[in-house]
Amino acid sequence: MSLTRRNILTGAAVAALASQLPVRVALAQGGDKVVRIAMPMDFTKVYTFVTAEYNQGQRDYITMMNQRGGMGGYTIAIDISDHANDQPRAIEAYERAKSQGAVLVDPLSTPVARALTPRALEDKINMVTAFSGRSDAADGTVFPYVFPLSPNYWTQAGLLIEYFKQQDGGSLDGKTICFVHIDTPFGKEPLPVLEALAAKEGFKLQAFPYTPPGNDQSAIWPQVRRARPDWTMFWGAGVGQTVALTEAARNGLDMGRVCSSVWLSESDMDVVGRDQTVGVLKFEPCVSGREPQVIQEILTEVVGAGKGAGPEDKVGTAYYNYGVMLAALMLEGVRRAAEIAPDGPVNGEWLNAGLHSITEFTAEGLIPPTTITPEDHQGGGMGRVARWNGEAFEPMTDWFSANQDVVWEEVRKYSSEFAKSGQ
Amino acid sequence: MDMILLLELAMNGVFVGLMYALLSAGIVLIYKTSGIANLAQGAMAMMGAYAVVVLAGGFGLSMWVAIPLALAVMFAFGVALERVALRRMIGQPVIMVIMLTIGLEIFLRGVIPGFFGAAVKRLDLGISNTPIFVGELLLNRAILIGGGVSLGLILLSILFFNSRFGIIMRAVSDNQTASWSVGIRVERAIAVAWGLSACMATTSGVLWGATQGVDWSLSLLLIKALAIAILGGLDSIVGVLIAGVIVGLAESLATGILDPIVGGGTRDVVASVIILLTLLFRPHGLFGREHIERV
């Protein structure tokens, strides 16, 4: 390689950039009171239906808490990037975050979270896997650095079955429950719990898988209708959910007996038609809408001050509030960590201790009382059932958890398998 | 086996097949005039549907103004595409031209949702979700209307190929050099074919968008459209019509009969199997012309 002026300048530029990396790590790990959180998410490919609103809620909440002086004296620095649900890109983003001193990563993607789990466990970097990743990560004894911080899909299915039972006079014996799901590991995930509950409660379970992404389900729903279900659960995301809901309506199913997991939002209702789906039910992990105190505070202190991270009309949507919920839990972990060890050092273990000491946290009434322990990373598995009334999701129940015995049997079965084989 | 269910699946399958066939007709139109299989047809359907959503949602136009405007925009896009990209490829191997259309497919699938938002968007044609019952048989209103409109447009394109301009296109398809020699403006005929094909893609995108919402997944219609075009014969509009019905029926019945046995997922396999079997046993399709070269 010749020593030209161009090569010298290029080399100098690369050296200057490279020299910044250790400085940034030092900033994060040093005594200037910064906690770094990385948010490599899928903004452009599969999870596009949720990421923008979820991340907007997270950023608005973090902006508000930073404006108030941070958590326990620590300012929260966030690094957002797009991994497009692509594992090599996500691993690259994770490694960059690690080198910059991030102590928590939130990838919001099941395949990415699964790919990153061994690294996070080895590097002792906390990874949030809310509504994604491995359901068995609820077992904190096997996954000490992986935090669902929310009811997993087994818990959601178990809670919905309990709701159906309550509505049908305390028994599901002889009833038919149809489960329409995307034909992927995520879509199939609730099946073991549903099968166990079908045996326990005496209902007939009929599963109808559809091909991803679910844009044509015209041959599925006539079969569901003719099965004459007492209840129907649909389990997908994005276009699969809106198509499922549209087909359920077109097949004349009683919307009051059709129910979804967490993946149903106001945006989906806009696609299907707000008045076409009145009565449809969903699992709700936190309060929707703008009424919660914390959302009101965001509107005043962040959005009102012109510092909102996205469109104002998205503030208070279901997915926006999921983002606020998770940001609030992460930052509560920071606050607790700062209480335990005010002077750090800020690293994965420091935040891990904080996350493990979250107790009866409600984010000012946004979420059910949530306690994270070294054993339970789900946070108690509480949620509620909400009904679409044409304008908003209204709660049909109080916060509750159900069938946790069956859920934890599954959790321990799979987590012990991971402990043995790493798979 | 529940016969009413089978009949219902068959009826819906026929109309879904006709909706797929409309997209295939666009592929055939281009193939008939220029001998190229346009693998960007699915992305063009997506682009057309996005155009309607943007014109109706972004500019507040009525749907019945937005759709003709989108058709005009897409016609211009098709013509411009031929002028700017395809015409430069004259003299290049066919495989290079096909690669260009694949590149266009990937480009549009990335850029359009990137600019106009990747979340699913509503495209409301005012079709009620209320089911139509004929005895115990349920007919899906949106699919019924979509299939009916598609059938009408495919029949129109059959008539078009018997009109003066249609005959010019067929002449161009048969022999471009001979067409030039008798004064036919070959480039213009091919450009119009691309424009019309883009309009067919747009109509297909609108009908499917009204059924499923508008997002990138509309571009996946390409696989079904290709299966139909290959089965029917890449140069036969009549073939597309019949193959559309066959593919729609096969997919729908496979979902009802095979899915419960194998645990699901047969719907998309049907299209792939049809492509494979047709290419292996009848490469020119059911109604396509078999090309014989003298050596």
From TrEMBL, chain A:
Which CDD domains does UniProt cross-reference here?
Answer: PBP1_ABC_ligand_binding-like
Matching SUPFAM superfamilies: Periplasmic binding protein-like I
One Pfam family in the UniProt entry: Peripla_BP_6
Q: Which UniProt keywords apply?
A: Signal
**Origin: domain of life:** Bacteria
Which first-to-last residue range defines the signal peptide? none
Query: In what residue span(s) does the Leucine-binding protein domain sit?
Result: 35-390
What is stated as this protein's family in its record? Belongs to the leucine-binding protein family.
What this protein is called in its record is: Branched-chain amino acid transport system substrate-binding protein
Q: What is the species listed in this Swiss-Prot or TrEMBL entry?
A: Paracoccus solventivorans
**Lineage of the organism:** Bacteria, Pseudomonadati, Pseudomonadota, Alphaproteobacteria, Rhodobacterales
From TrEMBL, chain B:
What are the GO MF terms of this UniProt record?
Answer: transmembrane transporter activity
Which positions, given as ranges, span the membrane? 12-31, 38-57, 63-81, 93-118, 138-161, 189-210
Highest taxon above the source species: Bacteria
Give the location in the cell: Cell membrane
UniProt GO BP: amino acid transport
Q: Topology in the membrane?
A: Multi-pass membrane protein
What keywords were assigned to this record? Amino-acid transport, Cell membrane, Membrane, Transmembrane, Transmembrane helix, Transport
Pfam families in the record, alphabetically?
BPD_transp_2 (PF02653)
List cellular component terms (GO): plasma membrane
Q: Which family does the record assign?
A: Belongs to the binding-protein-dependent transport system permease family. LivHM subfamily.
Q: What is this protein called in UniProt?
A: Amino acid/amide ABC transporter membrane protein 1, HAAT family
